Amino acid sequence: MPLYREQGVVLRTQKLGEADRIVTLLTSKRGVLRAVAKGVRRTSSKFGARLEPFMVADIQCYEGRTLDTITQAVTLGSYGPAITADYDSYRAGSVMVETAERLAEGGPSPELFTLLVGALRTLAGGKIPAELVRDGYLLRAMAAAGWTPGFDDCVRCGAPGPHTAVAVQLGGVVCEQCRPAGSPRLDPASVDLLRALLAGDWTQALESGERERGQAAGIAAAYTQWHLERGLRSFSVPRA
């Protein structure tokens, strides 16, 4: 059976039999990959810890009829321990990997892979608040998937900004003439934060306050779930 190597981020795992696991990864070249890791639940396993959620690994697999089998795993990014040790980081990371899996269902995307690896690295580093890392990832992941939100000019008519009304179904900020009924109005600083998160400008994002972060988080979540056309289960994980 053909062997191949891949780089992948572990998105989730599930038990299989007494000692095996099915590992779901976002890979750089194959998109979402589901493969069996045999014996990884045994304490004697040499690479079980390398195939936990949020880990980045170089893997060797051989192709099977239904599921491929992982035969080797070398750690490239050990982000799992730091993320799972902090509840807020775990919640944020769970949203990120679920989003990545949903977006990658359409096929391989090296950009989505690179974006997720960078976001997990930042999250594990602990220098940026988890909610900012999450919301920045969501906005940039949606842009990488082809749904770039607009936070400058009106996304319907092009009227020059700044605008503070946001219509997620239209793709971003709208002027008063184009604003659908019920569309929320944000503080100007919250729109600035959304713009900074989309650009990856952490210096500006870190200057934001609690109110702006809350408003931006609501828009990032609504925008993502609108385009995915169904809710993300990870958003229902309760706060600590």
From TrEMBL:
Pfam families according to UniProt: RecO_C, RecO_N
Keyword annotations from UniProtKB, A to Z: DNA damage, DNA recombination, DNA repair
Classification via InterPro entries: ARFGAP/RecO (IPR037278), DNA_rep/recomb_RecO_N (IPR022572), NA-bd_OB-fold (IPR012340), RecO (IPR003717), RecO_C (IPR042242)
Name of the molecule in the record: DNA repair protein RecO
Organism encoding this protein: Leucobacter albus
Ranges of residues in domain DNA replication/recombination mediator RecO N-terminal: 1-79
Tree of life domain: Bacteria
Similarity comment: family membership: Belongs to the RecO family.
Function: Involved in DNA repair and RecF pathway recombination.
Keyword match Transferase: no
